[in-house]
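Protein entry
_____________
===
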Amino acid sequence: MKKSNADWLLNLVNFIVNMLWAVNIVAIVFSFCTLAVVYARSSYTDISALVKYRATIESPIKPLSNEVSNITVSPYSARIKMHVKINPEIIISSFLLLILYEGCITIILYHLRKVFLSIRQKKPFERENIRRLKLTALCTAVFAPLNLLTNLLYLVEFKDQIPGFESNFKISGTGNLVTIALALVIFVMADVFRNGSELKNENEQFI
């Protein structure tokens, strides 16, 4: 039987999710080993973050023709990097954030793999998929407070070491609105699967 385009697309997405799962497992091991080696062998580490300027200074540029005017360049964002002495707070926060981020990513990928497997088995509306999608939505939404926590840790570290940091810079956002919107979309999908499961049960009872 010839496969439809939907089957090919489903197989492709399933392959990508499985690849991401394998890559994530390797990334977890590599990240923990890297942090452990760095903190065990060195007394210093590099901390960097994207920041935005609170006040911008415009720099004029002379145009090459008379057809345009008022060309200006305004600095908007930058990356601050500093070499800092490793202390217990940095070690604890690094491992804690790694565990939280990788924990959420692992839960998301695990449940997505289960959902796609059930779809391939022609069982998309089983009740378990509703729970899987809701957990996926929850873990996706957790990235927003995690990003805020990360920004707060950067802010504490930078304001103690960089003169006038709070008055001149602010930590750049990391897509919190996007993660919340994505979580809402996944939660709506869970509701769609719930309605599909109820219709399926009603049809089975009618038959």
